[in-house]
Amino acid sequence: MNPIFPDSQILRIRQADSTNRYLAQLSKEENLAEGTLVVAYEQTHGRGQGNNSWESEPGANLTFSILLYPSFIHASQQFVLSKAVSLAVYDFVSQHVADVAVKWPNDVYVNEKKIAGILIENFIIDDYLSKTIVGIGLNINQNVFVSDAPNPVSLRQLTGKTYPLERCLQNLHVLIAARYRMVKEDAEQLDSDYLRHLYQYGK
Description:
Number of strands: 7
CATH architecture: 2-Layer Sandwich
Number of domains: 1
CATH superfamily: Bira Bifunctional Protein, Domain 2
Number of helices: 5
Radius of gyration: 16 Å
Distance between the termini: 42 Å
Structural class: alpha+beta
CATH class: Alpha Beta
Low-confidence stretches: none
Oligomer: single chain
């Protein structure tokens, strides 16, 4: 059990066009606990920033969304969630390889290659966030990328190892919770960590 999200669930689905869209609709219909995850075996139309798409081989990577209720965050400060989530993914990837960085606003790179993308959708009531859905695509075991994306990479390509997705998901869930807690308790350290790990910061 995740101590920061003690009532959260992990909801697994075979296929979704977008886990963010699926979770947004589900959260309208049901009273879901904070920290609940929707994980797709196959995501057919994963979204990136703007009009970009996210390529992911079915069953090879992590494609999921997590639900948060950050009602303590003013709308003007919402970027702090991008910092927290991207740092959590950074923390995970750094457990396995070196030369990891966060590329503004919230992609995660290893050297010059993109290993993870994050899409955050915030809902606002009375100038404060009421609900946030965070979509994460993290390349784990994919060995070949066929889209025209310029620089994708996976952990398997970097290390030659195959990783258990369930263990990776549970580990990342804990890391997201820890960074989310920092938003409440140590935002100054969160800002410092974000700048310290920012891709080409100061260059």
